[in-house]
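Handout, section B. The chain below has 337 residues.
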Amino acid sequence: MDSSRFPVVTSANAARLKRVGTLRPHVEMTAHDFRVAFDPGGTRVASMEAAGMWACWWSLEAGHAGATAPREPLELGGPCCLLPDADHAVCVGRANLSPEGAWRPRLMLLSARDGVSSKQVHLPHAVKALARSREGRLLAVMMDEGEVLLWDVQAWRLVRALEGLPGTPGFPAEAVVSRCAFSPDGRYLAAVSTRWSDTGSQGLVWLWEVATGGGPWCVPLETHVSHGLAFHPTRPWLVVSGGTNYAALVDVEARRLLRRLPGFYGYGCHLDFDASGALVLVSSDGFGFCLRDLETGETRFEVQQEGNVSDACFSPDGRCIALGEWGGGVSLWAVVD
């Protein structure tokens, strides 16, 4: 699909969004919660089961048809599949009983064309979340025990281990990570988590400086759980979501909560920004997705999708929105005159 024939999605034209394509896997899954992501060039889009057991991706270039999937089984624990460039996918594979790590999961570099693994490395713990830098060179790997790794995809080597989340040695960190993301300029890494205790739970944001390895710095949220996050494309801001009707703006440089965002309802599980930063794309439990004005919370567009914990994201050029659908498929949305 040639996205260049569609205009960039803006506040002014968002009401004219229409479904312009549908991508289907070879075999539909029975799960209902899927995450979606584009590669940095917008030539491929991936769909991942939230539990981490299944993933596939499609080429959006003309003449390509059908889905590609990893040739090896994936590890349970979270949506661990990313497209660092048009030629490769990175997934977390199950332990393969090898001498290097009999029971340890593997970070695998796959061919995006046929799903065959070309490189792999054993990880010390189960993976809870992955994030890719904008240009696709760096990966952040969030694991059990609170450990955080920065991985160079091109050189296929460890850059550094960041200071992890607090916890008790030998036990999983008490702060359970939901998602993580790099800032557009690559300066910061952020994660949202929920801290569980005997007295209740607390939504948290964690921040690191990528170049220096500084952090983590913790910003408490005014909600008992946290689900999603997205960096603003031009400002040092992070929008985060949590419990019912909760979304807030965090100043990353000042490491403080700025304000709660108006107009949000339901569980805003997954978040993204348009290219200008004026619109927040919110996909949530049981209703599809909507576009909201960052300042006012006003709805610019909304589509209902009953019974599906949907994930949605913008394409890198801001011209399309990919929506994860029941069974593992992806629908593509663009502005149509």
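Note. The chain has no helices and 27 strands. Compare this with the example in section A.
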